[in-house]
Structures are given as structure tokens and as C-alpha cells.
Amino acid sequence: MHPPRTTAVSSSDHLTRGEIETITTLERIGGAISLVAVCFIFVAYALVRRARNVQNTFIVFASISNVGASIACIIALDGLVLGEATSLCQTQAFLFEMFMQSDPWWSLAMAINVVLVFYFRTSPDSFRRWWWLYCLICYGGPFVIALSLLLIRNSPKGLVYGDAVIWCWIGGKWAGVRIYSYYLLILICIAGTIISYALVGYHVFRSRNRLRSFSVSKSREAGHSDHVSAADHSQSDGFYGTVTTEVLVTHTSASNLVHPKSAHTARHREPASFPGATLRSSADAAAFTSSVSAPPRRQDLRLLNPIHRTVSACKSVASKFSVEDPIKRAYLRTSLLFGLSVLVTWIPSSMNRIHSWINGDSPYTYQVASAAVLPLQGFWNCVIFFVTSWRAVKDDVMYRAGRMPPASHNDSRIGTLERTVNREESRASTDDEAESLHTRSDVELRAVEHTATKGVAV
């Protein structure tokens, strides 16, 4: 039996023992999962060289703060059981105040860097020499706040760190301090992150529209006549036909010919063909049959399909926000995922504390939501790390397991930039092969026609 726990319950919105056990279980499970996930991040970052890019380095620094927050979550209600003035309770509150809010600070730092990359053309690698400044702000700011609250000892309200319902943190008598020293700063970080990504989206949309307008105007000026002639024959008429030519060559012995005729060469020019038209010509020694068939207009079929129109419209809108630079695209993707994880983590807890500040109580459902999502910061960081670096981690694991030769591991494509270059080279090679096949087909057709002419001459 733990008598102090009954006191904690009576002062903690009258939670039942079963509700307290549920909250404690959620806190410890989430904290343990995050702690293990953060260890995976550290191991992968240390062993996989290709995973040590700028965006993953931000995640690693944020994961360091997740270690302190996870330890505080694993402590759960043990600090309150021992007493608010005990070192365990004060330590848990300090860890929460410093490390729990450090994660949104790192998210805002990543968002600001994305703005610098897109608006000011700053290279992501240039941030490496400023790591000390990032650490000073994202760790130093929360540290100063947490230490200042810890040193307040002689206030008439008592200690700042105390009973916070589900763990030791800023006590209920200091509810205003909770808002101004914690949730207000977190909301500022979240708002700054959203604004930064909105600015980046606007910049990408505007740049894509300018690029398309410039490309269209240049193409119209350079090849207007060629474009019109090609459009008249292909797109305007919608003629995508199939031409099939059959060549039949017959040989007749000289004894069967009653009156041999002198060889002659005749030129024959086929008129323009229309769908369904058939042209036949015959000679004594050769027969040519050409048939032309045209399917329905491909463009008309697509316009009649509502699903195709919807998909095309969605692709058109999405393409306006696409980023061509693969390095910027990878950096933006990681930053967006990190910002989204911060939103998922902090919205329930912020709603809980704001409701408690306004109405004076904290519903049990809000407390359960806070206990379920707040300890999972490290887990979400781990998911983002391995989703964005899965190829590099997988190649390294295969190499260490002996399933990939050293040459393949060293020469593997690094990053999305080289994959894009290889894809473009492959596309160009495919076009060259298609052109070669087309030329070779023309040569073979001319050879067949030449053979047929010789047969006629014989």
C-alpha cells in the first residue's frame, strides 16, 4: 500500500486507482518504446555512413532530448508517490520541462532551414558549421527555463515543480507558468513551423508556374511552324493508324512462259489512305497488299473518361507543388514528416492544459490522450529516420551480412540525385534504342521491296 498515492488521487481531479494505473502503464510503455527507438537511431547513424546527412543529424539531436523525456515518462507517478519535494519528483519535473519541449524547438529549426534553402538558395550542407548555434538555442533555451523554475524555493505558493496529475511537473498553483513557460513556446514553434512550410509551398508553386510559362513561350517562339504541322497530322486529326504491308513474290520457270516479256520497272505511288481503305495492285510476278486501319481517336476516348479527367486534374495540381531538385526534395520531405510528428504529439496535450487552465479541471480522456502521445516522440523520430534512410540502411546491412560485394556497396547509388541522373540516362538510352530499331525496320522494309523488284525483273 502507498498512502501518499491516495493524497495524489484526491488532489488530482479525483482519479480512481484503476485510472491511475492505466495512465501509468501508458506512460511507461510509451517511454520504453521511445527509448529503444532512439537507441536504434543512434546505432544506425553511427554505423551507416550514408545516413549522416543534414536532416538526419537534426533528428539525432532531437532524439537526444527524447532520451531525457523518455526517462521522465518511465518514472511516471513514482515521484508523486515519494513526495513533491523529493529529488526524484524534482528531477522528473526538470527533465519534462527541459527535454520535452526541446523537440518542437528542433522542428522549428528544421523548418527555418528549409526556408533558407528554398528562398535564399542556401546549401543544406552549409548548416554543418552552425551545429553549435543550433544546440545552444534548442538545448540552452529550455535549460535556462527549467533551471530557473527549479531554483524558485521561497515563494509563498511553494515549489514550482510538484503535482501535475499524471506526473511531477509544474504544480497546479503555478498554472499560468505552465502556459507561458511551456505551452506558449511550443505553440509558437508549431505556428512558426506551419508558416515556414506554407511559405515554401507558395515559393514552389510560384516557381513552377514561372518555369512552365517560360518553357511554353520559348517553345512557341522556336518551333511554331513545326508544331502546327505536326499537330495537324497527329493531334488535330487524331489519326493513330496501323499500316500493314504484305509482299508476295512468285517465281515462274522459263519453260512455262509462252511469250517472254522484257523486264521493265514501274513506279507506283500510293494515294492517301483513309480508315478502312484497302489498296490492291498486282503484277505477273509480284503482288502487294496494303491495308490501313485507324482506331478511334485516343484523345477523344480520354476526354470521355471521367476517371481519367479526375486523375489528370489531380496530377496537374500535384505537379505544381513538386520539387525538381532531389536534394531539396529529400530535405523538405524529412522536415515535413518531423513537423507532422510534432503536431500529432502536442495537439492533445495542449488541448488538455488549455482546458485545465480555462475550466479548472482536466478530464480523464484528455489525460489519457496526453499520456499516450507525449512519450512517443522518440518513436516517431525513429520512424522518420528509417523511412527516409531505408535504402542506405538496407544496403549497409546487406553488405555487413555478406550478401552484397564490396564493389557493389561502394559503387551503389548515393542519394536521390544520382538515382535521378541514372534514370535520365536510362531514358535517353531507351530513346536511342527505339530510334535505332525504327531505322533498322526502314532498312529491312526497303530491302524487301528491292528483292521484290528484282523478282519482277527476273
UniProtKB/TrEMBL annotation:
Region (Disordered) residue spans: 405-439
GO (cellular component) term, any one: plasma membrane
Domain G-protein coupled receptors family 2 profile: 23-171
Residues annotated as transmembrane: 29-48, 57-77, 104-120, 132-152, 182-205, 330-348, 368-393
Cellular compartment(s): Membrane
Bilayer topology term: Multi-pass membrane protein
Domain of life the protein comes from: Eukaryota
Descriptive protein name: G-protein coupled receptors family 2 profile 2 domain-containing protein
InterPro entries from the UniProt entry: GPCR_2-like_7TM (IPR017981)
Ranges of biased composition (kind: Basic and acidic residues): 420-439
Keyword Transmembrane part of the UniProt annotation: yes
GO BP terms in the entry: adenylate cyclase-activating G protein-coupled receptor signaling pathway; cell surface receptor signaling pathway
Keyword terms, alphabetized: Membrane, Transmembrane, Transmembrane helix
Native source species: Metarhizium brunneum
Gene Ontology molecular function: G protein-coupled receptor activity
